[in-house]
Write a structure and sequence with these properties.
CATH superfamily of the largest domain: Zn peptidases
Strand order of the largest sheet: 1-2-6-3-7-23
Shape: elongated
CATH topology of the largest domain: Aminopeptidase
Radius of gyration: 24 Å
Distance between the termini: 33 Å
CATH class of the largest domain: Alpha Beta
Number of strands: 25
Low-confidence stretches: none
Length: 485
């Protein structure tokens, strides 16, 4: 086993985690991990099947006194968010994830996302299948595809794929919290064909303006933290420059995924000497401003102004102004807190991605809410701003909220086990993030579901890390819950 993972418990979970992190598994590229699961099932003589969407279920008979108990579905997803720091040499289509241990003993990757979300939960399911010493009821270990970019795996589940009516989702990131509900969501995409022009002869300077050094993070779980959004910070400087000086955009790029708060963003601009002088002043001023405003949630935000290769073409004056105003004006962050659950974000929106393609500017935003009508409302507000800017707007990717059921029998068992193991009540909550439980609940009427998992921080960013002590603790808890069922 990798020396960083050597000695970590439970050994089978970490063995499988090391193995799947040698396999490319960005969203929509889960074939390698799917084959790994199927090969393991064949080796263990376990029944397995794959549906049309690419989801896998592996069945294992119950053992000991639990062999005739109701089937329990243990569920996780195969894919991971693939993000890396700029300057990190890593090809997610072929390179394995490198492990690093922090000073606190947590496991992270070297400049990339780790894939503990949801690789650790998935590997707990695989360990259950392989470990013959565990007493458990009949199991169906369900591994879904494409959770991170649209939950299309869960959406593709047919009502005859599973038999069990009790489901444990292992895609949560806070030990000691049992989740019984989640937000629903959708995305809003805005595009506009670029009006290219020759660069005016007076604009003799081509420069790049970059925002970097932000933490980023999960756009649902961590939106409440008020973390910096690199695209919004970049647009703030550009908008301020546009009030006093003329310039043209050559390109603007930032963010990578709908469910990640953008950590880095950059723009290439053409301008005259006077505008460049002013931009230099703004870069220095706003680096100080950003670090002051966000000092409690970010460490060191950098605003970097560099020379860039001479551009011959740029967006027109009108197009440049429109893009800057839209990026600056489009909503981002927490829109409403829940009146029903104290401390829960009810509604939010994430300005996730902006890209300059060959013929268009593309912007991707993501909306979430635990109230179905509020998802529509915030998505329509984002769309309205895009339409005011003359952008084409497309909405889709919707997934339902998971409505909490405080009377769940599965929940009562999980609470009882938690009290016996830890001598205190667990926290029972809903989460401002999309879990597949909402979709699975629609496909399987009467499915009793809960979600829990180990401590994972910085998911969806290269800061992602997982606490091995928490993994061991949650594993023990999972085994006791299975026995109690």
């Amino acid at each position: 086993m990798n020396e960083v993972l050597q000695g970590l418990k439970p050994e089978l979970v970490w063995k499988h985690f090391e193995a799947i992190n040698q396999i490319p598994r960005c969203s929509k590229n889960e074939e390698g991990v799917r084959n790994y699961i199927l090969d393991m099932a064949k080796r263990l003589n376990l029944e397995s099947k794959v549906d049309e969407t690419g989801n896998v279920v592996v069945k294992k008979a119950g053992t000991g006194s639990l062999k005739d108990k109701p089937i329990v579905v243990v569920q996780g997803h195969m894919d991971m968010v693939c993000e890396k720091n700029k300057g990190t040499e890593h090809d997610f289509s072929k390179d394995p994830i490198s492990f690093v241990k922090t000073d606190e003993g947590w496991i992270k990757a070297d400049g990339t996302t780790l894939g503990a979300d949801n690789g650790i939960g998935l590997c707990m399911g695989l360990a259950l299948l392989e470990d013959e010493s565990i007493e458990h009821p009949p199991l169906e270990v369900l591994a879904t595809v494409d959770e991170e970019t649209g939950m299309t795996g869960a959406m593709g589940l047919k009502s005859d794929f599973l038999e069990g009516k009790l489901l444990i989702n292992l895609d949560s990131e806070d030990e000691g919290i049992i989740y019984i509900g989640c937000a629903g969501g959708k995305h809003t995409i805005m595009t506009k064909k670029i009006d290219w022009e020759d660069v005016p002869s007076s604009m003799n300077e081509t420069v790049s303006l970059k925002i970097k050094g932000l933490h980023g993070g999960h756009s649902g779980m961590e939106i409440i933290k008020g973390l910096g959004n690199a695209i919004k910070l970049l647009s703030r400087i550009l908008y301020k420059l546009s009030e006093t000086h003329d310039f043209r955009l050559v390109e603007v790029d930032g963010g990578t995924a709908h469910n990640a708060i953008p950590r880095e963003a950059d723009a290439v601009l053409v301008m005259d000497d006077a505008a460049l002088t002013e931009l230099g002043k703004l870069a220095d001023r706003y680096q100080a401003v950003f670090n002051d405003e966000l000092r409690f949630v970010e460490d060191k935000i950098e605003v970097v102004l560099d020379e860039a290769p001479r551009a011959e073409k740029a967006m027109s004056a009108g197009m440049s102004a429109t893009v800057v105003r839209l990026l600056y004006g489009v909503p981002h962050g927490v829109m409403a807190m829940s009146h029903a659950v104290e401390g829960l974000v009810e509604t939010s929106t994430n300005l996730a991605v902006v890209k300059t393609r060959q013929d268009e500017v593309y912007m991707l935003t993501s909306q979430r809410s635990s109230v179905a009508t509020s998802i529509i409302d915030i998505a329509d507000k984002v769309a309205a701003v895009g339409k005011l800017a003359g952008f084409e707007v497309e909405q889709g990717g919707g997934y339902p909220a998971w409505q909490p059921n405080p009377d769940s029998k599965l929940l009562h068992v999980c609470k009882d086990v938690f009290v016996k193991m830890y001598g205190k009540e667990p926290s029972v909550e809903a989460v401002h993030a999309g879990l597949e439980c909402g979709i699975i609940g629609e496909a399987y009427d009467g499915m009793d579901m809960i979600s829990f998992g180990p401590d994972i921080r910085g998911a969806h960013s290269p800061a992602e890390r997982v606490d091995p002590k928490s993994v061991a603790s949650v594993w023990d808890y999972l085994l006791q819950v299975l026995k109690a069922l």
